[in-house]
Structure formats: C-alpha cells, structure tokens
TrEMBL record, chains A, B:
Key words, A-Z: Aminoacyl-tRNA synthetase, ATP-binding, Cytoplasm, Ligase, Nucleotide-binding, Protein biosynthesis
Biological source species: Sphaerotilus montanus
Matches recorded under HAMAP family: Pro_tRNA_synth_type1
Protein name: Proline--tRNA ligase
Gene it is expressed from: proS
InterPro entries for the chain: aa-tRNA-synt_IIb, aa-tRNA-synth_II, aa-tRNA-synth_II/BPL/LPL, Anticodon-bd, Anticodon-bd_dom_sf, Pro-tRNA-ligase_IIa, Pro-tRNA-synth_IIa_bac-type, Pro-tRNA-Synthase_IIa_type1
Start and end residues of each Aminoacyl-transfer RNA synthetases class-II family profile domain: 33-477
Length: 581, 581
C-alpha cells in the first residue's frame, strides 16, 4: 500500500472533548471521526485495525468450532418481549417503530434472536453442541457516552452463543471458548488478564472477564502474583485479616469526638490506627406483597473496618439481601439508632436491626465505633462482652492490595484494567424464557444450556492504546497495527534512486506477506516521522540518498530509543526478523 | 472445512410466503432465515457467499483507488435536515429518537455523512480525487417487503462516494468506477449488462445500472445485439417507426364502435392492424403559487400508437411536464373532451388542450382514434388536414423489441434483469446543500463534484440464484459459491479407506487454496447429493469403497448431466482444471 492510494488525516491537536488518551490519539491519528455523541466514523486508518482484530477473532472462533452467521441490527420487539427485556431494559435499549407502528429494537446483543434460531434449527441432541457467533454493529444508548469509542453508543461486537444438552456439556463449551479467548488475546499482542467475575443470579463460577491491563482502566483487577488467582474487584474474595478474634484488653469507654464523623478523623483525634476503627453503614430491605405494595421493611447494620470499602455485589449475595437492598432513609436511621449518621454503632440501639459484620470486623477486638450519640464514639469495644455476636458474618468488602490471596498462595495485588471480553455461562435463562428446547436422548424436550461470549471489537482499539502509548503517539502491537512497517523515503519525489529503492523494498516486503505502507507523499522527514509515530506503526525503515550511497538504510522499532543502520541488501531480512511471531 | 464443524440446515419445503425461486431456494438451502417482514438472519451457508462477494468488491475497489472506511448505521438527523432528505424522504426512511428525544435515522445510504466527512477532511484540491466507500448494514422500511432478500428491509450495501475538483475529473472518477464494476461483475461470474439509466434532475449521461440477467427480473433491459447500445426501459430512446409521415389516402370517417373502448377491440372490430390505431391519454399539470395553493391547471393529451405504452419518465422530461404531472380527473376529461375515457381523441374538443404526439404517432397517416363521442371512433385521420399539427412531438413511449436501435446499428432486443449495482454522477447536489467545499487552485472555495456507486451485496445472492438454478436447486458460479468443491464420501463413518481417501483429498485441495467442504456427516448418498445440489456447490467429488478399489473417483460439475470417472491420483489436478479461472 502506498500513502497516495490511502487516506492519512493526522491532526496536531485533539478536540477539547477528548478526555482520555486513547480518544485523543485516535482522533489525532485520524482513526475515528466524531459524527454525534458516542457515534463515530471509522476512518480508513482505524478500520484497518478493526479488520485485523476481526480476522484474528474469526480464525480462533473457527478453530474452536464456532460457526459464523449474521443476525440483524433491527430486531422485532416480540422476541424481546418473550424474555421481558423489552420492558425491563432501560433507555439504553433503543426502541423504534416501523411504518406500520410495530415495535423494533436496535440490537445491543442478540440472545433473543440466536435463541429463536436455535429453537427452530436445533431439534435434536445430536446437533449439539453448537456455537453460533456474529460480528455486527451494536447500539446502546448510553446516558453519557464518553471516552471516544471506549463508551460509545454504536460499536462493533463479536458475540457468540453456545447451545448444549446439559450443564456438563455447557461447561465444556465454556472451557473451549475460554481457551479460544486466551489465544485471541495472546495473538492481539496485548497484556491482559482473564479474571473471574460475578455470575449474578445464574450462580456457579463460569464467568470471566478479559481485561486489557492499563493504568487508566475503569476496572480494578485483583490478582495474586505468586499464583493463578485473578478476579475482578466485585468478586475477589476478602478473607478475615486475622484468623481468630483477639482477647479484650481495654474497657468499653465513651469518648467525646466532637465534629469527627468519619473513621479517619476519629483515628487521628484518638491517635489510633484507622484499622482499629469500625464504620457503620445502614441498609434496608422491603417486603412487597403480590400487588407490588411495600408492606414492611427491615433495617440492616453493616460493619466494616474503617479502612475498608463496602462491596455492593457481595452485600447483594448475603442471605436476606439477595432480593435487592437500598440505603436506609434518614428517618429509618434515626428511628432505629436515635442518632444521625456519623456517630452510629451497634451498641445502644432504639429498635433492633440485623447486624452483618464483615469477616475482618468479626475478628476484631478493642475496636472503636460510633456511640449512637452525636459527637461521641466508643473505644475498647469487644464482641460478646459489650454487644452480642453479629447476626451474620460475611465477606462484604472490597479486597485491598496486600490482603492474603484466598487460595492461600500469597498476597493480592491490584491493577487497573479495561474489560474487552466476557465469557459467561447463561444456563437456561433464555431458553426457558423463550421455551427453546431440543429432543434429548430419551426423546423428551429439554431446554438448551447456553453460554454467551462477547468481545468488544472496537473497544479493543481504545484499550490497546490506553495500554501502550507515549508522548509521540500510539504504540501498536504488530498483530493489530494498521500497517506493520512504514517505509519513509526522504526525497521520494526528488531522487530517482530513493524512489527505486523504496518501491523495491515495498514490493519485496509486500510479496513476503508483510503489511507495508510506503509513504510516497513527499512530506519532509520530520512531519513524515511524526505521522507514523503518532499512528503507531511498529516498524519503520528510512531511506535517503546519503544512506543509499553508504549502502545503508535506517531501521527503527516504535519502542526503540534509536535507529539501527542496516546494509541495504539485508533490510528485508532484518525487518522480518524483528516482526513479532 | 468439514460439515461437522459447520452448520447445514437444508429443508425439503420452502415456506408458503416465498414467492420467487431465489427466496424459496435460499430458505431451502438454509442460507437465510426469516426474523420478521423483510428482515433475515444470514445463516452460515449464506454468510459465506456474502463474504466472497464482499472480498471481490474490496479487492477491485482498492485496485480502483477507493479507500474503505465505516460510517455508522445510526446517524444524527441534523445532517439529513441539511439536505432536506429528513423531511422529503417518505416512511422508508426509518426515524428514531434517542433517550434525550433527539432525532436519528437508520441509514438507507450515506451521502450526508460522507459529505460531512469530506467537507472537514478534504480541504484542498491537492487531496482530490478521493473515493470513500464502506460495506455496511442498511435499512429501508419498504411498504411491502418481499422476494426474500431481493426487496428486504435490512440489507448490506457497498456504497462508494467520489469527490472531485470539477466535472471533467468527476467524469474520470465515474469511468474508473464503471471499469471497476465491470471487473467486479466479471469476477462474480454472472451474466450481466451495464445499461444506461436516467439521470433525473442531474442531467448528463453518467448513470448506469448493473443488471444481472434473469428471466424473472423486475426490470426491462433494452439492448442492441449488434452494437454496444444498452439502456434500461425508462431511458432507452424510441425512434419514430417511419422516418417521415405518409400521405393521406382515406377520408375522415366517423364509425360506430359500440362498447369498443380499447384500441385492441377497435382494431378487431374494424379489421385493421393495431398499429393503425392511436390511443389518447389525458394528463394534467397544476400551477401552484408561493403558498403552495393550486391556482390553475393545464390539460395535456398524449397520443401513442395503439400497441405502444407510455413511459412516465420520458413524459416527465417533456417541456411543461418537468415540474410533475398527474392523470387528469374524470371531471377535467369531460370538461375538455365532452366524453368519458374510451372514445377520446384530438378532434372536436370542447376546450383547448395541449397535444403531445409520440414521435411515431406524429408520422402516422390514415389513423384511427376516438371521436369524443361515446361508442364512436374516427378512421382515416390525418395530421394537418383533419386536425392541426401537435403542439409537441416527443419520445414518450417505451421501446419494444424490434424497434430500430437509436445508434442506427441494428434493432433492439429486450431482456429481463435485476438491478444490483448503480453508478451515478451526483454533481454538486449534496455538496451545495451541505456547503461542502475545498480550496481550488486559485485558493477559492469550490463545491465538490460528487459521484455515488452502490452494489447491493445481499441482493447479489438473490440475483445470482434467479439467474442460475434448476429443479434440484441453486447453481452458483465458482467465485461466489459457499464452497467451491464438495467431497461426498459414501460410508465415511464405516470405511477406513473411504475416510482416509476423503480426508487426504480434502487436505490436498485445501492446501491448494481451494475452498473445499468434506461432508463427514455420514448421510446416505441420496440425501447427501441432494443437499449439495440444492446448496449449489459447483463441483462434487464422490468417493466410495468400490470406486477406490477400482482406483477411481467420480467428479460431477453442478451443470454436468453425468459424472466423470477420474483415476484416484489425478482427482486434485482434474478438479483444479475444472475451476473457473
């Protein structure tokens, strides 16, 4: 490919609304162009990356036995009504009426359509397992689209759906996809982690996110550097920080803490470690009758160590809170504690509440908590002596770096990641809702066991850039770079020798199957180099009259500090040797 | 590829709503699956054809210097309001509101978006010519979707848009695309014609449709077998069938023709050739004031030979009718002719009308027409003697087979076609509406000269099947067949020899870059052969134990009447030799 046959549209400045570096660099490199909020044109330079990402996905999905099809963007509402998602999903599901007033949706995913295909096409257990996937335009009407294509409204996703005869077979399909995803992300050349994720109401442990590591990532990834353990922050298990409760050594004492309504302030005032304090969070659950009216509420007191944060997903799994919970109202708090937030604690309640202690809190002794009296805290608090044992002990906090790994193999570390893939065991959620069955070995109808497997194709671009960039621009891995090698001839439009040598090298590399770009625009060297560094092409060869006279060209990898001189005749072999496998 | 890794879903019966053969065969071959009216899933077998069509298009578009990008499916209404199409387009433009109530459309084409890209990105004449294209999902909310994917609502289209500095350069871009389209359709292996088409308000002669020849096609293609002339029926010029008017030989006579209100009936009654009769069609145009109120109307009498049909497109180009016309009302007709339709004619009018004679009618003598009196016609009618010369003489009819070719090189023939591609010179229609300019050689802003170039990717599938099928199923050309070669082993699951030979042949052909399908399902021969004939794979190799013992396999091309025995060792070479270039 030559630049004159392509479209290069680099810019000096990123637009003001580009908040994150990947958005800024994609705009500057001319890879995307904004059309509306969260809606982008993929310019030729960006589309090349997408196509390479898609090609790798296709190859590995095919290798894993998945079959590609194409499901429509505009889907009839009827199917979405069968699963209830037409009504349940919020405004991020874009709804549209056709000329006859019939309801349709613009697909955000395709569970309903693929389940409809399966219930018609997969009639016998003999046709199973089957895994259908497509790579298609998706739309989610995000409330606040941002970060360029990282949280856009229209995007390209690969979504695959497996159909199996029983949970054991579904687990096997899941493992097959998990392995395929590892190959896919390995081939992208990105640093990533497959982390265990919450399975929600489905249960089990068959849910993993594929997170591209990046300091700017929105997600916290918990992992153990000395073992295989990896999970997202919602799921990562927090063990008790002491294996058993210490003995009481202090007397229960009410202490004035005027104006000190946070654990941190109290710890400073009393000159105690923050880890000696306990914070009180008050939640409520509602009992609802058949008509949907609230007929009663229960108040819950959650106790966490002062330096720990509540994990809402974990709280939502505690018995009694599974059906949904909310923060208690100020009225409920005053009614039960006789005190405003800031000085709450488990001792001296006006009305009984259910007390849930985090595992770590349950093993604390001589701790500090609110006195249920404004401007007072209690110190030297001890379970059993000063207050009854908690109603429940549960893991309700986020892990923090340094926590013991739940597998006992070391301590946990935390890094940031960007979720670009997700493999998930769906069970019979959709097949039951849509009564999608096959005839099993006994000739009886059985519901499909399903899994779904997504990769955010366009999101990969943003994640890759967040992971690897520098002051000069993007640093693509070879496998998904828009071009693998940029040939930059100095004086292409002036020197016949340079032109001949550049053309010959271009043809030689291209014939060798290398995706090469020859910059024949005749730009001056500085501008030309800056463009290809901004665009992030991983390998560059510079030709000049002087170099040719000396029998040398200059090679520089995008991550290299300096150029390497290479004898003219050896350049192709040198470049090939530098390409990542 | 092996069948066990793929998804084959043939059906014995087509659904009742499949009216045309391509729809029936695509459903039966398991290529598409209906999701809603005019909305289809592309099943794995159908998607393979789409991907092959797309690959050919991409290669040839790239060769012609067009650059691929990707424009969004959901597009902000603002751009469509700039060109007025948001309001002007009917309900086939699907409109949708986002969560904030802002208007969007689901793209039917992308002129607005690409022009918006160009006005921002193409700033100088030095960046021209430029041709951007994308292959993307389109939606048109057809009033009556039918014929499967031939007139679906959601479909895939390749649309390209060229930007040039002046009309001469735009014409060059047009020629480049025209040549690329010829290469594309040649490579598809389809019989097609590039036919001149109407340019509407743009004018000029830069509009061609690419029509796939098929007896079932909706469009009539006019061509001259002995010259290059080809045009669609709307455009094809109808010359006068006699070069000059004959002399009057008969007296004007009023003849009773009771109940004979059509030319055909009159000709039979009077025992005259139909070509001696003239039919009268009454049109009207309205004069409208600034407020849009109709302030006056003009009635037009169109005269056509009794065996000719009116061409509305041509009528719309006649001076005075260009602004739009309609059929006259019964009231207007009675008011001007004093007679109901069926016996109308140009003689003895109650009020003056504008008379337009088709070129052929203008040269007729002694003709027959209505007498403007119920149940009476006039015979022996002659221009000049019995009525004044027509106000206008124009080409207002469809050509018929046997008409002289307008290039004087022979006579015209007509065949049916299916429009699958269109190249069109747009001029400055969109660039002016959106004020899309570049700086020309003098440093002044100038509007882009544009062209647009579409190929209905999914429609190609239907058209190819309409063109080539038989009682057993589809007959694909090699280039776009879902698989090029089907290996059908008899007893794959029973005979180790058959399995080994089939696997070896599969691997050999695959290694040679041939798209081969090995049917390893273990189906009985009849069902297996029927499947691949229905699916339309162009080359088949059958292996059996008996054949292997004799050292022979059977090859049969999809169009061949019988199989050919081929020595085992020569099969690969034999198949390769049979592949279309």
């Amino acid at each position: 490919m030559k630049a004159s046959q392509f479209f290069i549209a680099t810019q000096k400045e990123a637009p003001a609304d580009a908040e994150v570096v990947s958005h800024q660099l994609m705009m500057r490199a001319g890879m995307i162009k904004r059309l509306g909020a969260g809606i982008y044109n993929y310019m030729p330079m960006g589309l090349r990356v997408i196509r390479k990402v898609e090609a790798i996905i296709r190859e590995e999905m095919g290798r894993a036995g998945a079959v590609e099809m194409l499901m429509p963007v505009v889907q009839p509402a009827e199917l979405w009504q069968e699963t209830g998602r037409f009504d349940k999903m919020g405004p991020e599901l874009m709804r549209v009426k056709d000329r006859h007033g019939r309801d349709f949706i613009i697909q955000p995913t395709s569970e309903e359509v693929v389940t409809d295909v399966a219930r018609q096409e997969l009639r016998s257990y003999k046709q199973l397992p089957k895994n259908f996937y497509h790579i298609q335009t998706k739309f989610r009407d995000e409330r606040r689209p941002r970060f360029g294509i990282m949280r856009g409204r229209e995007f390209t996703m690969k979504d695959a759906y497996s159909f199996d005869r029983n949970p054991a077979a579904a687990a096997k399909s899941y493992e097959t996809m998990f392995a395929a995803y590892k190959r896919i992300f390995d081939r992208f050349g990105l640093q990533y982690r497959a982390v265990a994720a919450d399975t929600g109401a489905i249960g089990g442990d068959l849910s993993h996110e594929f997170q591209v590591i990046a300091d700017t990532g929105e997600d916290a990834i918990v992992y153990c550097p000395t073992s295989d353990y990896a999970a997202n922050i919602e799921l990562a298990e927090a063990v008790a920080l002491s294996s058993e409760r210490g003995a009481a050594t202090q007397a229960l004492t009410k202490t004035a803490t005027p104006g000190k309504s946070t654990c941190a302030d109290v710890a400073v005032l009393l000159d105690l470690p923050l880890a000696q304090t306990v914070k009180s969070l008050v939640m409520a659950t509602d009992e609802v009758n058949d008509k949907g009216d609230i007929v009663g509420s229960t108040v819950w007191l959650l106790l966490l160590r002062g330096d720990h944060d509540m994990n809402e997903v974990k709280v939502g799994k505690v018995e009694g809170l599974k059906g949904g919970f909310r923060f208690a109202t100020l009225g409920e708090i005053e009614d039960h504690f006789g005190c405003k937030p800031g000085y709450l604690g488990p001792i001296g309640l006006k009305k009984p509440v259910k007390v849930i202690a985090d595992r770590t809190v349950a093993n604390m002794a001589d701790f500090v908590c609110g006195a249920n009296e404004p401007d007072f805290h209690l110190t030297g608090v001890n379970w059993g002596r000063d207050l009854p044992e908690p109603d429940l002990v549960a893991d309700i906090r986020n892990v923090v770096a340094g926590d013991p790994s739940p597998d006992g193999q070391g301590v946990l570390a935390i890094q940031r990641g960007i979720e670009v893939g997700h493999v998930f065991y769906l069970g019979t959620k959709y097949s039951k809702a849509m009564n999608a069955t096959f005839l099993d070995e006994t000739g009886k109808p059985a519901h499909f066991e399903m899994g779904c497997y997504g990769i955010g194709v366009t999101r990969i671009l943003g994640a890759a850039i967040e992971q690897a960039h520098d002051a000069r621009g993007i640093v693509w891995p070879d496998a998904i770079a828009p071009f693998t090698v940029a040939i930059c001839p100095i004086g292409y439009d002036r020197s016949a020798d340079v032109k001949a040598a550049a053309d010959a090298l271009h043809d030689e590399l291209q014939a060798a199957g290398i995706d090469v770009m020859l910059d024949d625009r005749g730009e001056r060297p500085g501008a030309m180099f800056a463009d290809w560094e901004l665009i992030g092409v991983p390998h560059r060869v510079v030709l000049s009259d002087r170099g040719l006279k000396e029998g040398q060209l200059e090679y520089q990898g995008r991550r290299d500090a300096a150029a390497t001189k290479v004898p003219t005749g050896e350049v192709a072999a040198f470049v090939k040797a530098r390409l990542q496998a």
